[in-house]
Design goal:
Chain lengths: ~120, ~280
């Protein structure tokens, strides 16, 4: 085997070792993540919690602020996605109602521009 | 060295190739295509996000009264001792002004959990999770266990640890003022000079955490809370007085005002006086 062939064989060997080390032995760790990376079921449950609190306090701004942790999409869209997921996996009717109310309220809600705040 | 006595280049080129390959592999694994942060579980959240998540769980509990669901949700955060973490967060939230009003929800959830047998979980207490996900498994100690693929799992078995009767959590009786039942000078050279130690108890002499204490002096005022040093007791709080200054103390939720507090002088036989501290005990009648 020529030197060049051996050279490229060990490069590939090193590449393989590097990938195994980086992906299997010592991969990037799942720590200190943000709520916007949560799996769909956890996101939906988070939105359901917001809906439960909103049902009690009717504080739509606080609900929107809490939903903002789940990403940069409009809160109504986040709630709507959670509603879709909840329908897909058969959440209890009472939970679906809460999510529906939150989604509807957020769709009708007009956030006050910061400049208009007192 | 080769057989002819010249320094040989041997197999260095192989080592060079290996290092190049290794570098490329790590570059791909860590930089170009690292493991991505998607589909994570609440247990992996950063601690401040966990606090927000916990606050929301408590607020939802306050809104619905569904303790089973709150417990299931808390188990997703992987706290070893949920009650302790909730109590601590409630105290910290009280101390930092409680802007969102969640301290009350946190402490009520902690109280409710304290009064339950250690672990009661039903898989139905949470809305359905993804089909691919396994359900959370709680060990008898209440510790969430993780499967090798880093997913929180959940045992469908109802598990109740054989704990004694749940102890009642001491909470302040609304409207009942506190009375000063003891005031004494503390002469202990090991303590900080001018330390006021305050103990707040309920009617059954149980320590009360989260009680706001207002300390005023001629030029200022400070609010402190009991329970921020749990190692000294849930009903304990302290404050250091300055020399030549008089202080007044009152519990924010209602008590008599204790005036003219200043650093006392302690005397031991045949020696000069030295500055001591004060210990006050408040209790609900």
């Amino acid at each position: 085997m020529s030197r060049w062939i051996k050279f490229f064989v060990v490069i590939i060997l090193g590449l393989a070792v590097g990938l195994v080390y980086g992906w299997v032995i010592n991969p990037v760790e799942y720590t200190n993540t943000a709520p916007d990376t949560l799996r769909a079921d956890y996101r939906s449950d988070y939105v359901l919690m917001v809906a439960e609190v909103f049902h009690a306090d009717q504080n739509i701004e606080l609900a929107a602020r809490r939903l903002a942790l789940l990403g940069s999409e409009p809160p109504a869209q986040i709630a709507s996605r959670a509603m879709e997921y909840a329908l897909g996996v058969n959440y209890p009717t009472s939970d679906l109602n809460l999510l529906q109310k939150l989604t509807t309220s957020l769709q009708a809600w007009q956030p006050m521009p910061e400049g208009n705040l007192p | 060295m080769n057989t002819e006595g010249k320094p040989g280049r041997g197999s260095w080129y192989l080592l060079t190739g290996l290092l190049i390959g290794l570098t490329l592999g790590l570059l791909i694994a860590w930089v170009i295509a690292p493991v991505t942060y998607v589909d994570t579980a609440p247990v992996s959240l950063r601690s401040d996000f966990k606090d927000l998540y916990r606050s929301l769980i408590a607020s939802a509990y306050l809104a619905t009264g569904d303790l089973g669901r709150a417990q299931s949700r808390l188990s997703l955060l992987g706290d070893v001792d949920s009650v302790h973490v909730l109590s601590l967060q409630a105290q910290n939230t009280y101390a930092s002004g409680d802007i969102n009003g969640t301290a009350n929800a946190l402490s009520k959830l902690a109280d409710a959990l304290k009064q339950l047998p250690q672990v009661i979980l039903t898989p139905s207490s949470l809305p359905p999770l993804m089909e691919s996900s396994t359900l959370p498994v709680l060990a008898a100690s209440g510790v969430v266990t993780l499967t090798p693929n880093n997913r929180v799992t959940f045992s469908p078995t109802l598990m109740v640890t054989p704990t004694p009767r749940p102890t009642r959590t001491p909470t302040a009786t609304i409207g009942a003022a506190f009375a000063l039942i003891s005031q004494e000078n503390v002469c202990d050279g090991n303590l900080v000079v001018g330390l006021i130690q305050i103990d707040v108890r309920d009617a059954s002499s149980q320590p009360l955490p989260g009680i706001e204490i207002v300390i005023t002096w001629q030029t200022g005022e400070e609010h402190i809370f009991t329970g921020l040093k749990p190692e000294l007791g849930d009903g304990y709080a302290d404050f250091v007085m300055n020399p030549n200054m008089e202080y007044s103390i009152q519990l924010a939720s209602g008590s008599q005002v204790i005036n003219n507090l200043h650093i006392p002088t302690c005397q031991t036989d045949g020696s000069e006086g030295y500055p001591g501290g004060i210990r006050l005990v408040f209790q609900q009648p």
